[in-house]
Amino acid sequence: MRKTGVHNFPAIDRVVYGKAASEAIDEEAERLTAKRVFLIVSRTLNAQTGEIEKIRRTLGDKHVATFDGIAQHTTRKQAAEVARHAKETQADLVVAVGGGSAVDLAKIVIMAMEHDIRDEAGFDPFPMGPGASVSPFRPPTVRQIAVPSTLNGGEYNAAALVTDERSKLKQIFFHPHMMPVAIILDPVLTLHTPSKLWMGSGTRSMDHGIEALCSPAGTPLADEVVLAGIRALREGMLQTLHRPDDVEARRLSQYGSWLASYGLQARVPMGASHGIGHVLGGTFDVPHYYCTPVIMPSLLRYNKPFTEDAQKRLAAALGAPGGDAADAFSEFARTLGLPGRLADVGIGEDKFEGISKIAINHRFVKANPRPFNGEGDIVDLLRMAA
């Protein structure tokens, strides 16, 4: 039982579920008195399905523009470009429809709009160093709504991951009002999501829950909610694996992502799975949704002496009461058909030193429940995951 701590509540109005995305977006625009809605959307959803056109038709004259050229790892350069476009349209609401990259882009775009950032260097005056908790940004005048098509869960977070292409470093930018003002869950929209992305993003959301559960800064409320989320995610994802067109299984998976991400909403610091994952993605081009299955089992083993009670509860939530949490997670990821080792995603030992040099200074690596005493400890962890 946690004896002391602080529980933060997020700057979000609502989560909307049980409605089609097009209907819910239009209703939220009306609620927020938005007249000029700028859409940031998945290119696949825009070009290969009718989902985005439904949204545009329902918004009618309130729709001012659609951007669909989202980079996989959100970049400073693209954020500045899209912000300029949104300002030119006089947008008063930004709506992201798609995966984690769409949502992160919307978060940082509203900040680039607020501060009139026009290029990569425009973000330089707004550093967010290791351990930073006070935002350098002003509150944004324009807010955003998120409509996720994956299970990542990053939409429940008031921070954005943005890659500086000049250094190939993924950075965290934060302000409480970067949290979407509303999140809309439409399981029908996710029928178009590729299976590997759906499953991989689900493990990423599970990662949010696991790192909150194991964090020394977690709270009793967050612990109970994320455990419920992990259980729901496991059940929903396994059902979806066998019945991809089962909308109810997708709905359950979305609810699981919502709950498992509660630690993000409460601003519980994530740990080394997130920190190392940011390096793997931003610098070494590993797809974000593959980072958790290749790192988490080894990290759980590394952290076990410091998180044994939490891992017992985690193992039960993963369907292995009395078992080992690392083994249970590894088996779950294998069942989903996801990669399980760093070698499976193109990361060999020749890259371990470079990863460790960057990761050792990452704010989430510094918040890991078991400390890393130096780069060598991270290299040892990577060898475990090789």
UniProtKB/TrEMBL annotation:
InterPro entries to which the protein is assigned, alphabetical: ADH_Fe/GldA (IPR001670), ADH_Fe_C (IPR056798), Alcohol_dehydrogenase_Fe (IPR039697)
GO MF annotations in UniProt: alcohol dehydrogenase (NAD+) activity; metal ion binding
Pfam families linked to this entry: ADH_Fe_C, Fe-ADH
Record-annotated Alcohol dehydrogenase iron-type/glycerol dehydrogenase GldA domain positions: 14-187
UniProt keyword ATP-binding, yes or no: no
Keywords: Oxidoreductase
All residue ranges annotated as the Fe-containing alcohol dehydrogenase-like C-terminal domain in the record: 205-385
SUPFAM superfamilies xref list: Dehydroquinate synthase-like
Matches recorded under PANTHER family: ALCOHOL DEHYDROGENASE, ALCOHOL DEHYDROGENASE 4
Similarity-based family: Belongs to the iron-containing alcohol dehydrogenase family.
Name assigned to this protein: Alcohol dehydrogenase
Organism: Bradyrhizobium forestalis
Taxonomic classification: Bacteria, Pseudomonadati, Pseudomonadota, Alphaproteobacteria, Hyphomicrobiales
